[in-house]
Design brief:
Elements: H1 2-22, E1 24-29, E2 35-42, E3 48-53, E4 56-61, E5 65-70, E6 85-90, E7 95-100, H2 104-120, H3 128-132, E8 136-137, H4 159-162
Parallel strand pairs: 7-8
Antiparallel strand pairs: 1-2, 1-7, 2-3, 3-4, 5-6, 6-7
Length: 168
Amino acid sequence: MASEQLRQAKAVVREFVLEMRGGKRMMVMSPTGQLKTTVCSLSKRLDTLRITRSGQVRRIPLKEIQGIHAGTEPEGLSTPLDDLCASMVVGPDGHIISFRFEHINARDTFVMCMMLFAQSVGAEMGAENAEADAGEDDGECIEEGDEDGSEAPEEAGRQFESGVGTDA
């Protein structure tokens, strides 16, 4: 029984990698609940997540992922999360990017695989202090005004509506 479960888990991870390496259409939820279409992909080394929107690319090294939450977690966000959401806490400032999936299995596969890959590259998962002080990131791929793609936490909730800047 355990060997069958292991085989199934490997198949799920393999399929996820193939999908994500080629680029997968995913929805990012803004703090107002508006869904934005993005294309997300993983690097060959499975160490960087690329989020592309409107021709702009944001690269997130997986080692900077501080946590990945399924459903309505983490609490206290203005974003109207539901059971089909998965939220990533991204360092060093603890910004949050929320994705919304078509079904629970897709959400769970994303959470499981991204946690696995992030931990494999040395991400410090579960940084509770960072989550408590986290600014909301409404999923904009490129932040306006900062050449390095970073932003102040208090500006995170406004970045989606403010336009697109340049990515380093």
